[in-house]
Amino acid sequence: MPERLRFDDVEEGDELSARSFFLSKDQVRAYARAGGQWSPRFTDDEGARREGLPGMITPGNMSMGILASFLEAWAGPGTLRRLGTTFRGLVLPDRTIRLCAAVTQKDDASRSVELDVWLEGEEAERLVIGTATVALA
Questions:
Q1: Which residues, other chains included, contact 26 with Cβ-Cβ below 8 Å and sequence gap of 6+?
Q2: b/e per residue, 82-116, with b = 16+ CB within 10 A?
Q3: Is the pTM of the predicted complex or chain greater than 0.85?
Q4: How many CB atoms lie within 10 A of CB 127?
Q5: Which CATH code fits 7-23+58-135?
Q6: Closest CA to 58 of 35, 81, 84
Q7: Secondary structure (3-state) at 47
Q8: pLDDT value at position 3?
Q9: Cα(83)–Cα(115) distance, rounded to whole angstroms?
């Protein structure tokens, strides 16, 4: 089992190493299929355009899941206690996205940290923003 991050090794103001990766249409379609969200907006560019969208979009809960995985990869499995997000823009597949976070507060009593988290598009625009609580060892 991977080691969990230690509370004493984290300071307010710390920025997590950003993670960038290419989010493909096939990944979004597979997620939509697995989650029972087989809607044109998540599976087909032309169908999404008929809904007034620029093309396929990524389901919001997929964006949240990607951010949750990013945080647990940093802190260790089972550490994420809360994740709240606001969707400010469309996460379009077949583009590179970037996951980012910064520690904003430490709580000695619960040995947890609060973080600002965000998902950026290719132009560094913050498409999904939020806050998270992570419990550390």
A1: none
A2: ebebeeeeebbbeeebbbbbebeebeeeeebbbbe
A3: yes
A4: 19
A5: 3.10.129.10
A6: 35
A7: helix
A8: 75
A9: 9
**Residue 4 confidence (pLDDT):** 85
Q: What are the residue boundaries of the structural domains of the chain, listed by start? A: 7-23+58-135
Q: Rounded CA gap, 17 and 102, in Å? A: 9
The residue assigned the tokens 């032309």 is 46
Cα(2)–Cα(124) distance, integer angstroms: 31
pLDDT in tens, 30-67: 999 999 998 999 999 999 999 999 999 999 999 999 99
- Model confidence over 76-106: pLDDT tens digits? 999 999 999 999 999 999 999 999 999 999 9
Q: Is the pLDDT of residue 1 over 60?
A: no
Distance between CA atoms of 14 and 112, rounded to whole angstroms? 14
> Is 68 buried (19+), middle (13-18) or exposed (0-12) by CB count in 10 A?
middle
